[in-house]
Amino acid sequence: MKQFVILSGKGGTGKTSIAAAFAHLAHSDSIRAVLADADVDAANLELVLSPHVLEQHEFMGGNVAWIDPEKCESCGLCEQVCRFDAIALKQGDYQVDPIACDGCAACVHQCPANAIKMELQLAGYWFRSDSRYGPLFHAELRPAQENSGKLVTLVKQQARLLAMDEQYPLIIVDGPPGIGCPVISAVSGANMAIVIAEPTISGVHDMERALEMTRHFHVPAVVCINKADIFLDGAAQIEEYCQKQNVEVMGRIPFDSTVTEAMVRGESVTAFRPMSPASISIRQIWQNIVKMLQFN
Amino acid sequence: MRITVASGKGGTGKTTVATSLALSLSVDALGLPPLFLDCDVEAPNAHLFLKPTFESRKDVSILIPNVDESKCIGCGDCAEVCEYHAIAVLNKKVLVFPQLCHGCGSCTWVCPTKAISEEPNLLGSLEAGSTPSGIQFSRGTLNIGEPMAVPVIRQLKKWSVAQSGQVVVVDAPPGTSCPVVESVRGADFLLLVTEPTPFGLHDLKLAAQVAKELQIPAGVVINRDGIGDPGVEKYCIDIGLPILMRIPYDRAIAEGTARGQTLFDIDPKYIMLFQQLFAEISRIVAQQ
Q1: Class of the A62-122 domain?
Q2: First to last CA, chain B
Q3: The complex's ipTM?
């Protein structure tokens, strides 16, 4: 079983549109793939794949402290030990700001009056769905919640279990932007990372950080340049950087308004307009990936 | 006043809007130039447009446990209190996993033999300086391979103190989880940048939810206006979220920002439009 993850560093470079196109192309090539949306903060793959939810599960995130005002002796030790600025005196009572609370429980262990307890928080949901291009695992982190890395790991674990049980040869993971905790969770265990880079001054900068991160975790990476014709110097910079770093530039996708049109229709661009310039490039990239992962 | 620019979806133009807003406030010779905080510590880009010269730098670290084996009796209390599974005791030997540690201090305090001391674990860095137009600029950068962005953002906010009366413009990371919340906390206004597409709408709804949870007034900038569909506009009207500005889709803007130009370099009319945007935000905040 192979697993590849789509990343970018910078947000909005086209990860999800390209992931949806890959899902469509895998399906039409009869390569059975399990799909996992690892961008649990802003999960958009479902907007294109029109999934039918089969299972919904609660995701319990971290704990949050709660101070029992009946037992509290107002000594203030909890406020002193809290390194997350989550406890303050409000209207005569020490209170926890649940959004700032990191769930460390230091206050619980230090409170001399045993007045503080931890309460488990419902942080979101994860789903197993059937989609038009295969099984989809996705999640919804409730806004302002923590532990997105944990939820990403859970979504991927579930995708992997199904792939093993039912002998799927491929897992396609749509990753989150950035390089921090949810991205590290998304990358772990991948055979390959496909970094979608935009030839803009910001895009080049963030692609470099994304590639440094994949190197740090020893995950082989390739680059696809999206909207490649919007700034030719930027595209040249990406190619130069990749050459120096020995990273393959696997394709150049031209700017193409059919990508947005497909999104509005809730379809993948390769299904919506198979002969559009973007679709043609994405299909070529897909064929290269198939070769690289040695499916046939 | 502190204005945080956020989006939910990435790549909608947060940095373009945040840098333009800061620049529009720095051209007014009468006022104090703003303080700009780049809180997108995983992918910080604002410096590419505002071109600051950095004058000071500070490491960001959190305190992680360091176990003195000669004092440790292997009781396991430290592992028991750790909510992050960052410390384990196997055969009376303590193992610390620095990347899981949130630096809360609990293990150090509960250790009955005082065998644990704390040592800094480096996560990233902070830099500060000023831009040619006088903006006071600070940014945080998360080191590659480090998972935790929040401590870098938290320390950036503490380190960069605004003068009284100084406007603070915060460029937040994409998403809706902890790094965004840390960036948004303490804001007087949340400016949500979106694009009029189904992805933009889906993520705008989540970002608006963050504003609601944190009880911060919010308004919307529709970027690349003209592409996509009317979903975003309809949603904003339905829930009473004010649309404060529209930046039309224009290939010249896409190409200009791609090469590092600011919106004002591309079209000077935006100076006035952003000053009007600031006036409108001030009016909304004053009403609260």
Answers
A1: alpha beta
A2: 13
A3: 0.94
